[in-house]
């Protein structure tokens, strides 16, 4: 989480007490009314559209018994981005308010981890479809759970050191907080890139059984969506990490600290990813039977004690009635033939 530069701000030594403005240039620099307010206002309107679109999809699916929580995560992400841009607008109006700067920076850098997590969840489903035994194995579960748990832990650590860096003038402490920020941002870049080698793993590891197709649409298009999103997210995360490695005084910012880079490598990339997933109806393409926990559940649904499968676990059930496993397999084969024809 690179701290935004306070170019032109009062020197920390001239202030009476903490928090102190940063001595170093950061991505986005100090916001100004003539540039940041109109740009942030446009972004707020776009993220409002994203929030409304994803929540509408989530609620309509829920009314039909189609459970897909990831749409609600994108809604939460969009709301976080709305807050981040509103804070930047307010910060532009009060550029010397360091507390506003801290809040704006935290929200600007924290929200994207939700998209990282969504992409990891999607690629986990693809891995389990291509290699059910490997994807559902205990080692694979542990690895993915580690990544899921490490993200909020790393974010909390990041927020703590960023806030602390504004409340000290000790150069040694500032250098140490910067080192933590560099490590965390580098880890987020690796996390954004992780779906790409995971997709590669699906093809490298020899497959001993048929692909357990899930959701609507072809597996090829699912892979394209994941790789496309991962490439964009990696670009943004790697750029932010690279900027954090290069510290210069706030009065001497480089081209990569400018506002165009800040908005392009943060919000523009995120909007492309979120709208690409939403408009491609990833809620249908990546839907899996609720309660899936073992090989075979993607294809056959999750059996209950009387030999049936639950209604909400049949992504292509048009009748809304509970079907037997044989009827479900017959409908699945028909659907797969239709997809192959497309």
Automatic annotation (TrEMBL):
The keyword Membrane is annotated on this UniProt entry: yes
UniProt keyword Transmembrane helix, yes or no: yes
Cited Pfam families: DUF3112 (PF11309)
Keywords of this entry: Membrane, Receptor, Transmembrane, Transmembrane helix
InterPro entries the UniProt entry points to: DUF3112
Transmembrane segments annotated in the record for this chain: 37-56, 68-90, 102-122, 142-167, 182-203, 223-242, 262-279
Annotated protein name in UniProt: Family c-likeg- -coupled receptor
